[in-house]
Specification:
- The structure is a single chain.
- By secondary structure, the protein is mainly beta.
- The chain has helices at 2-5, 36-39, 151-159; strands spanning 49-56, 61-67, 72-75, 78-87, 97-106, 114-123, 137-145.
- The radius of gyration is 25 Å and the shape is globular.
- It starts with a helix and ends with a helix.
Length: 160
């Protein structure tokens, strides 16, 4: 009998949401009006340098490119573009390095027609998170050279 009662066509009413205030100590602080580049938080994007690895799986030739955001480099039938690179601040965990990369490959039988095979973030410590899927070429992030305020002092103290 209990099973039959549970099969009724009546839909229970959803309780109305109750508006409550967020406690003061949990309220989000206002965002700074100055962008990070102008606030001196880390290296400005234009001054960062990413090291990108490129592997040709056919001939097992590996190359490294050092690119700044906005730069691109061609190696045979491949063009690698760097849009941005980031790494976590020294005090953040887990440590991560990433770059927003675009990879273009020349289409077979053409001289100057390239197809974009990848556009997205690649991460050094999590290469399987986002993968350049191509039968011939593999691309990965090796490093993003940038610094944060106070980082130089902690590096000097660690070396002494």
């Amino acid at each position: 009998m209990a099973l039959v009662a549970g099969c009724s066509d009546e839909v229970p009413e959803t309780p109305a949401t109750q508006e409550t205030e967020i406690p003061e100590d949990l309220q989000q602080a206002e965002m700074p009006e100055v962008p990070a580049d102008e606030a001196g938080i880390g290296t400005p994007m234009a001054e960062r340098v990413a090291t990108i690895g490129l592997l040709n799986k056919r001939n097992n030739v590996s190359q490294e490119f050092e690119l700044s955001p906005g730069e691109q480099r061609r190696a045979g039938d491949v063009i690698v573009r760097l849009q941005a690179c980031e790494r976590t601040a020294p005090w953040e965990m887990p440590k991560e390095t990433g770059a927003f990369v675009q990879v273009l490959v020349r289409q077979r039988g053409s001289e100057d027609q390239f197809a974009r095979i990848f556009s997205g973030w690649l991460f050094k410590n999590s290469p399987s998170l986002n993968v350049v899927e191509h039968p011939i070429y593999d691309v990965w992030v090796k490093d993003c050279a940038m610094s944060f305020p106070g980082e130089e002092a902690s590096d000097e103290a660690a070396s002494e």
